[in-house]
Amino acid sequence: xxxxxxxxxxxxxxxxxxxxxxxxxxxxxxxxxxxxxxxxxxxxxxxxxxxxxxxxxxxxxxxxxxxxxxxxxxxxxxxxxxxxxxxxxxxxxxxxxxxxxxxxxxxxxxxxx
Amino acid sequence: xxxxxxxxxxxxxxxxxxxxxxxxxxxxxxxxxxxxxxxxxxxxxxxxxxxxxxxxxxxxxxxxxxxxxxxxxxxxxxxxxxxxxxxxxxxxxxxxxxxxxxxxxxxxxxxxxxxxxxxxxxxxxxxxxxxxxxxxxxxxxxxxxxxxxxxxxxxxxxxxxxxxxxxxxxxxxxxxxxxxxxxxxxxxxxxxxxxxxxxxxxxxxxxxxxxxxxxxxxxxxxxxxxxxxxxxxxxxxxxxxxxxxxxxxxxxxxxxxxxxxxxxxxxxxxxxxxxxxxxxxxxxxxxxxxxxxxxxxxxxxxxxxxxxxxxxxxxxxxxxxxxxxxxxxxxxxxxxxxxxxxxxxxxxxxxxxxxxxxxxxxxxxxxxxxxxxxxxxxxxxxxxxxxxxxxxxxxxxxxxxxxxxxxxxxxxxxxxxxxxxxxxxxxxxxxxxxxxxxxxxxxxxxxxxxxxxxxxxxxxxxxxxxxxxxxxxxxxxxxxxxxxxxxxxxxxxxxxxxxxxxxxxxxxxxxxxxxxxxxxxxxxxxxxxxxxxxxxxxxxxxxxxxxxxxxxxxxxxxxxxxxxxxxxxxxxxxxxxxxxxxxxxxxxxxxxxxxxxxxxxxxxxxxxxxxxxxxxxxxxxxxxxxxxxxxxxxxxxxxxxxxxxxxxxxxxxxxxxxxxxxxxxxxxxxxxxxxxxxxxxxxxxxxxxxxxxxxxxxxxxxxxxxxxxxxxxxxxxxxxxxxxxxxxxxxxxxxxxx
Amino acid sequence: xxxxxxxxxxxxxxxxxxxxxxxxxxxxxxxxxxxxxxxxxxxxxxxxxxxxxxxxxxxxxxxxxxxxxxxxxxxxxxxxxxxxxxxxxxxxxxxxxxxxxxxxxxxxxxxxxxxxxxxxxx
Lengths: 113, 738, 122
Description:
The complex is a heterotrimer. Chain A contains four helices and four strands. Chain A is α/β, with parallel strands linked by helices. Chain A has a single domain, classed as Transcription Regulator spoIIAA, CATH 3.30.750. In chain A, a hairpin with a 2-residue loop joins strand 1 (2-8) and strand 2. In chain A, helix 1 runs parallel beside helix 2. The termini of chain A are far apart. In chain B, the strands form five sheets. Chain B has a five-stranded mixed β-sheet. In chain B, helix 3 (58-75) runs antiparallel to helix 4, helix 13 (344-371) runs antiparallel to helix 14 (374-397) and helix 15 (403-420) packs parallel to helix 16. The longest helix of chain B is centred in the N-terminal third of the chain and has 28 residues, at 3-30. The model of chain B is unreliable at 130-161, 295-302, 307-319, 332-337, 534-547 and 723-738 (pLDDT under 50). By secondary structure, chain C is of the alpha/beta class. Chain C has one domain: Rossmann fold. Chain C has helices at 12-24, 35-42, 61-70, 88-97, 109-120; strands at residues 4-8, 28-32, 49-53, 79-83, 101-104. In chain C, strand 4 (79-83), helix 4 (88-97) and strand 5 (101-104) form a beta-alpha-beta unit. In chain C, helix 3 (61-70) packs parallel to helix 4. Classes of the chains: A alpha/beta, B alpha+beta, C alpha/beta. At the A-C interface, loops of A face loops of C.
């Protein structure tokens, strides 16, 4: 699992690359919490997630809930096919609330800067 | 690739293990307490049992199971190993070797071997005490294949056309850590049916500080449209059942069941109720009723979305997105392939019309040949090809799994067991074999009859069985499989077998056969289908069968099927019913004899050849085909045809139920599709004919009943064999037709 | 797709039949004849599921399971243990060692396939 952080002026893009599975759940959660504390608006790119299990889905919900509680603007973007497949099976799109299918959206990180 | 490919490995391995057993036993003779040797002995038995089970070698599994149980007690120190036990295990080892020899010869163990086994099991039983008859349990998760739980059928009978199950899943906290991801189980569910709706409960995920990312917090409410039974659905969650809360409500469950469910789950009635309403499990009104019942709570519960917003789970716009998404998903689901219930008579009408289409298309083909217009002919062949495809798809619509009928028989077996005080297990194989719906329906009665007979008369009482060294519990097997364009349905029992002498005596007494006539086994077994036996009540107790078997035969004949019997004294009886896949339309081979057309069902045709002139000159009634002697049936004589004959004679070699014969005809006219029409009453009794069909030319052809013709051929053969003694040597077939 | 299953059993015929069945269903199968052999063949390789017999000469199933689960790269990998109904004591030992799924011997190839499908997901 690679987590690449790109940042400029209070905005941040976190790229997840590799398997979002239980084997990496601890480090992913830790990273998620770090960036939530650090940035106002952030986007997590899931384009290069090659595999996702239930722990991965839980982490996405967790970061969404936390962002809401902390008043952060968080967008999950660029869902890769394995991510889409899982979210679709679990019908979580509604609960996560991010637009899917469309790679880049105006709803991204523009609002708050 | 099949199991039989791996059988040599099993045999070699088993032989190696038998040698190990022998070595260990030799050591134990010197030092009876040698733990290594005891362990090795146990492991060898254990391994043989495990792999024998994989190959379905039940006799070996059952026997080894007993030996293994005793060895287990020795290993645990509950039983001392002594010279008596060592001798016993020596004998067991030798018996196992006999059983494995039988497997290698591809035979089932003979009577003496089975007797020997039973005696050994009895000796082993001494050491086991009460847990003797602990049979090896079924495999995964010990779930029986079909559960006789009345709840299973709740709401599934009656007119409820809803087959949607409700599954409420709360997974244990450690499932992810154990590699048991809910994802896999839910994905597996999609193989058992269609997920109509799924709601993922994320309520239990705590704030980040307390959240353990390796722990599972999710719950699911799932609506599943599936024809699986409850045991099968529960079986999906075998591996996580202990730590998780899995609730499965069958289709048609009542509000009270859902109420119990709501009250038992941590989310609370209100929250869960809204989810259930969202899933379509209950209606908003029903939820209100439940809430009212819950003593004076709000009668106007907020919508799920509002509740979420209020709980600050989700922003309002998110809810809007979710709603859109839900609608989108719903729209897609309605477009997806779904099961459609269609009235059977609509389907029958379709089949009829397709039948007419096939005839019309054949007529067109004939007429187009006369025009010599190649473009027209090409188009017509294209149409004919499409008609073929439509015919196949239409016939396919009528195919249903035979298992529906099979399940009914569990009750039959149970009821008869209760009446007779027997203990009998019904083992079903091939329940997914597909067969024309009308065939399945009409098969139900004869099968019920055969199964009743097997339970009632075929299988002995527990006391008798014990005396013969058989297990108390008898077994009736119901098997279905496809075989060469037909379907085989077998009903077999492990009872006493048919009593040859008894049947013969009865037949003579009833005047079914002459006093001095000797018959082979097959002919004797077939006697029980004679109407003369049907009224005989008493014979059934002794001979095994007899009540109304002529009705069974008649039912099966009416389906253009055949039935044969295999019976071994002391081992049991098998009724083998062979049925055509479909009744309405068949592929046929058109032949002509003395100016008349006949259709031979194509799946019975092996090959066609010209009758050698020499054989024709001699008027042989046998044909030597590559060294094999086949009976030759002359259709002219059989049907007493007197039209003009061509100079050449051809032979159509047909087969049915493992027998072959040659049909002597004039011309071979090629393949066609025949839409079978039932025979007029005028022809109904004609042997060798099963129906008629209309040819493209508009003429009528008779469809030959190959199994009936075979019977004629066989009878003729027997007769000519005994001909030197009997007087009717001269009139061969004519006498039989009457 | 492309999931890998390891079967650990001292019986060559069981390995062959299980291997054949699972390969037929599209899985990659690694066969090992006992715990030691299995650990040697694993050696960091990616495995999605392990099916192991309990009673084996050499390293038995329970000891193998303990060592397997102790390796970080396999700590969450599911394991199905093959057992006889006689082995209740073994079962609790296996449970402690981290086995959650059991298949009772003797089993049919299709039961094995179903069990694997239940755990392997899409």
